[in-house]
# Entry
Amino acid sequence: MSAWFNQHLTALRDALRRLTATPLNSTLSLFVIGIALTLPAAGWQLIDNVQRAASSASGVQQISLFMALNAERKDIAEIESRLKLAVAGRWRFISREEALKRLQGTAGMADLISSLPKNPLPDAFVIDPVDTSPEAMAQMAKTMGAWPKVAHVQLDAAWVKRFDALLRIARLAVSLLAAVFAAALVVVTFNTIRLQILAHAAEIEVARLIGATDAWIRRPFAYFGAIQGLLGGVLAILLVVIGSRLLTSPVAELAELYGASFTLEGPSVSLAAALLAAGASLGWLGALLSVNLSLKHPD
Amino acid sequence: MIVCSNVGKRYPGGLTALENVSCEIGAGELVFVTGHSGAGKSTLARLIAAIERPTSGSIVVNGQNLAALRGSALPYLRRNFGLVFQDQKLLFDRNALENVLLPLAIIGTPIGEATRRAQAALDKVGLLDRAKANPIALSGGEQQRLAIARAVANRPAILLADEPTANLDTNSAAGILDIFHAFHQVGVTVIIATHDPQWSGLQNARELRLAHGTLAS
# Structure
């Protein structure tokens, strides 16, 4: 166990030494890997933000539940308890008085509202479901429509379906882009390691003659690939964060022009972790493919 | 103990380097494999160290038949040997100490202990004060001593050298032979392939003389 640990420690040290021995080459490779990871990561980030912006700005992926005009406090309490049991997601109650006040605040509506003999608006619930798939939302709307004193359940099913289809296309496009760039990352690492192997041919020959196993020879190259990929992941996170920061203010200003409040979010912890893991594992894979091929066919 | 039985080696193209060579080398022996250039000395050394495989016959090292060993087991067998090559095979991108550390790193020796053992090996060959020097800055004799230090760093049971005194002047060659002799005196089996028959006259040494790929004596 101790020998195994020491061999890995030596391999890690060798990998770091090789990485710093050629700073220009290492930096250039790192930038290529970083950019290859940044593009799909930025795509994911964009989709995530578009999804949030659409749902908060236009009511997409929301269900509006309108109570009957004769609904009383106990009917509203009944609906609230049913929503709790259904674990439908987050919701908020908008009383008919509050709805009227909001409508009066809308330009050009104040005179019209004041001319009405009584408040024509119902009490309502606005629900943000956890499951936003078109099927789940349609089912939820159908269930709610059967609840007592519910006059109408509004779900723009066509809009939800269109939006969901658009998001699926965008996700697929980004996934394809990610696959292409993942392959590019493997190829870049493969070539870098191939050059490293050529540069260390004498060392590999001597090590083999004096008792090194193939695993021992492979290890520093695998660490090299993984470290290079990991650093590429760090660079990609930095680039996405910088991009998000630069866009935050203009996007907020644009949202304000549409009367909405929206803050562009940077990469989540899970996206950052995925970038680091993808960088390290793809780098490791490229290195292993390269060194395995070179050990089998040294020429 | 090394036992060679009817060992033959034929290379692709038809060149026969060894034919029906049988010999035994006991533990702790000092053996010179001599012969003219092309007699098969280096081939025999490479076969014993399992760098190449014989095309006929068998070689048994410490009870292990090399022909029966799987490829993945060969590195572990080679760790029983301290190998000194004619061209030394030193690494010029690292200093003398780091060259000697290589076999110790391969077997996973902790860096502190490895450094102590590498320094001890350099001390034995008289190169401790050149530990930080790059091999390129060493003389031919010093480079050969460095190769010996690397070979003995992990305390092998068998020290196998191929033409260790080639290209050295008489004084340097004598110095190298003294080092091998010292290792033999502490119980290490020493096998030296050399074209120079004068060294086989050393005390307690045995000579295996090859001629045209066969054992002459």
